[in-house]
Design brief:
Layout lengths: L29 H4 L11 H11 L4 H16 L5 H16 L2 H17 L2 H9 L9 H18 L10 H15 L7 H14 L6 E4 L6 H10 L8 H7 L4 E7 L9 E8 L6 H4 L14 E9 L10 H15 L5 E4 L6 H6 L3 H20 L6 H6 L8 H17 L1 E2 L2 E2 L2 H8 L3 E6 L6 H7 L3 E6 L4 H9 L7 H6 L1
Helix pairs in contact: 2-5, 3-4, 3-5, 3-7, 6-7, 7-8, 7-9, 8-9, 15-17
Length: 482
C-alpha cells in the first residue's frame, strides 16, 4: 500500500522533461533509508567534476558563460539583483534543456560548487564565517546553500513555470537519478536534503482532504501520481473518492496545487484481506454509521526530489486524528499493504537457507504431497502460484513471507521497505493474506500475498521500542507461522 518502497511506481515530472526515479518516502528512519548508496568514498570532487565537464558536449562559449553565471550566484549576497538575474537565466536554460544538456550543466554546477567561491574563501580567511564552522569546507557549503536559497526565492518567468522551490525539487530528482554519471553531486545533494528537511518540516505542511469536487487539475495529478494500485479510469477514481472513502494529502504553502504525499482510505466492516474487493466499483456503499475499520490501502509519494525527507509517518498519524474527529466511534485502523521485496529476497536464497526457514516438519509434509522440494529460492517461487488453492502451498508461502517481514534485516531494520516504513511508525504485523492481489504486479512481487499492519494509536510508542530492541510487534497468528 505504500509507494515509498515501490520501485515500479509512476512519478510524473515536476518540471518539463524530468523523469525522476521512484522514491522511497520516508519514515522516521527516512534519512537512513534515503542514502544514495555510493559508499563513504570521498574522491577529489573538483578534479572529477572538471574531468566530466571536459567530456560533455557543451560548447566552450556556453561552458564559460555558465561558469561565470554560477560563480556570480555563489559569490554575491542574496539581495544582489545581478546574481539573481544570473540564477534566473541558469534556471531557464536548465528547464529548456534535454537530459544530456542537463547532465552537462550539473557537471558544471558540481565543478563550481566544489571549487568554492571567492567570498566564502575570503570569509574563512578573515574569520568572518560562522564561528562554529570548520573553515573553508563549511564556507563552501554556505556558498552552496546561498545558491539554493537564491533559486528557491525565484519565480518562473512564465505563468506556467513552477515556483523556485518546486524547481529545486526537480533539480534534486535529477541529481539522484544521475549521481553515478555526474561526479561531485553528493555535497550538493546533502545540502539540498538538509534544506528540504527544514523547508518541508511537517509543522509547515497543510493536511487537506481531496474529494471528487476538488479541481480537475488536482484529480488528474492523483491519477498520474498513484503508485501502488493504478487508477484505471475516471470511474475508478470516483469510486476511490466516494462517500465511504477518504483521501488526504500534505501540501506546502508555496506549492498549494501540488500534493507531496497522499493516502487513500476505505471504510469497511472488518479488516480487509483482498485489494480487489476494496477497489470493486460495483460494491455497495458502506454505511458510515456502522463503520468499524479504516483501511489505508495506498500511500503515494509524488516528488522523487524529496527522498530522505520524512513526513509519511506524520501523515498517517494526522489522518487517524482527522478520522477520529469525524467518526468518534471509529477505533480500528490498519493497512492493506504489498510486500514488494519478497520475491527478490526469496529468489536469491539457496536451498539450505530456505530449508532452515521452513523447518523439517514443513519440508516433510511438502515431500509427502509434492515430492522432492525445490532446489533453491527461485524454484520455490515457481512452486508457489499466487492463485493456488492448495493448503500446503499457501502455508509454505505465508511462512516464508512471515519470516521475511519479521526476521530479515538490513542494517538492523526490516529488510522489506514497506515493513520498514510501517514498523518504523509503530505498527504491528497483524495478518498475512493469501491471494490478496492477483494483478500481474502483485503476483510478481509477492506471489499475490499482502499484509495488514495494525495501527493502535496508544501502542505506537511501545512498538517502536520493541522494534529498536530487534523484536517487532506481531500478532499471534503471524507468530505461529514462524
Amino acid at each position: 500500500m505504500d509507494s515509498l518502497s515501490n520501485s515500479e511506481q509512476k512519478v510524473s515530472a515536476p518540471l518539463s522533461g524530468f523523469e525522476p526515479s521512484a522514491p522511497t518516502l520516508l519514515s522516521r528512519f527516512g534519512r537512513w533509508w534515503g542514502r544514495k548508496g555510493d559508499g563513504n568514498a570521498k574522491p577529489d570532487v573538483v578534479a572529477d567534476a572538471k574531468a566530466h565537464a571536459k567530456a560533455v558536449a557543451l560548447p566552450a562559449r556556453v561552458l564559460r558563460r555558465q561558469r561565470e553565471q554560477l560563480r556570480q550566484c555563489f559569490d554575491a549576497r542574496l539581495t544582489d539583483s545581478a546574481a539573481n538575474a544570473a540564477a534566473q537565466t541558469w534556471r531557464a536554460e536548465y528547464e529548456a534543456a534535454g537530459d544530456d544538456a542537463r547532465q552537462a550543466m550539473l557537471g558544471v554546477l558540481a565543478e563550481v560548487a566544489a571549487s568554492g567561491s571567492a567570498q566564502a574563501e575570503d570569509e574563512a580567511k578573515d574569520g568572518n564565517a560562522d564561528k562554529s564552522a570548520s573553515g573553508p569546507p563549511q564556507a563552501t557549503s554556505n556558498a552552496r546553500i546561498r545558491f539554493f536559497k537564491r533559486l528557491a526565492a525565484l519565480h518562473g518567468q512564465e505563468g506556467a513555470s513552477v515556483c523556485g522551490l518546486h524547481f529545486l525539487i526537480g533539480l534534486r530528482a535529477d541529481m539522484l537519478r544521475w549521481h553515478k554519471r555526474v561526479p561531485g553531486l553528493r555535497p550538493l545533494d546533502d545540502d539540498l536534503e538538509a534544506l528540504f528537511s527544514n523547508w518541508f518540516d511537517v509543522g509547515l505542511l497543510e493536511l487537506q482532504p481531496i474529494t471528487w469536487d476538488s479541481p480537475a487539475s488536482l484529480l488528474e495529478k492523483l491519477i498520474r501520481y498513484e503508485a501502488v494500485h493504478e487508477i484505471a479510469s475516471w470511474a475508478d477514481l470516483r469510486n476511490r473518492l466516494d462517500s465511504d472513502r477518504r483521501c488526504y494529502a500534505f501540501f506546502h504553502p508555496r506549492m498549494p496545487r501540488e500534493p507531496l504525499i497522499f493516502v487513500e482510505v476505505a471504510f469497511v466492516p472488518e479488516m480487509a484481506a483482498n485489494v480487489h474487493a476494496l477497489l470493486d466499483e460495483a460494491a455497495p456503499l458502506e454505511d458510515l454509521r456502522r463503520v468499524k475499520w479504516a483501511i489505508f490501502y495506498s500511500i503515494s509519494n509524488t516528488q522523487a526530489g524529496l527522498r530522505g525527507v520524512s513526513f509519511g509517518n506524520f501523515l498517517l498519524k494526522r489522518v487517524i486524528e482527522e478520522l477520529q474527529r469525524e467518526f468518534p466511534k471509529l477505533k480500528q485502523f490498519a493497512t492493506l499493504s504489498p510486500i514488494p521485496g519478497f520475491a527478490d529476497w526469496l529468489r536469491k536464497r539457496d536451498g539450505d537457507a530456505v530449508a532452515k526457514v521452513l523447518g523439517d516438519k514443513r519440508l516433510a509434509r511438502w515431500s509427502e504431497r509434492h515430492g522432492t522440494p525445490p532446489a533453491d529460492g527461485a524454484g520455490w517461487l515457481a512452486a508457489l502460484p499466487a492463485d493456488s488453492e492448495d493448503a500446503m502451498v499457501r502455508d509454505i508461502a505465508l511462512a516464508l513471507a512471515a519470516h521475511y517481514l519479521v526476521r530479515e534485516r538490513q542494517q538492523a531494520l526490516p529488510a522489506d521497505p514497506v515493513a520498514r516504513f510501517h514498523l518504523g511508525n509503530g505498527a504491528c504485523v497483524e495478518r498475512l493474506n493469501w491471494a490478496a492481489d492477483l494483478s500481474r504486479k502483485g503476483r510478481a512481487q509477492s506471489c499475490g500475498m499482502m499484509v495488514n499492519y495494525l495501527y493502535v494509536p496508544e501502542a505506537l510508542d511501545d512498538n517502536l521500542v520493541r522494534l529498536g530492541n530487534g523484536s517487532p510487534r506481531m500478532s499471534r497468528a503471524v507468530g505461529k507461522l514462524l
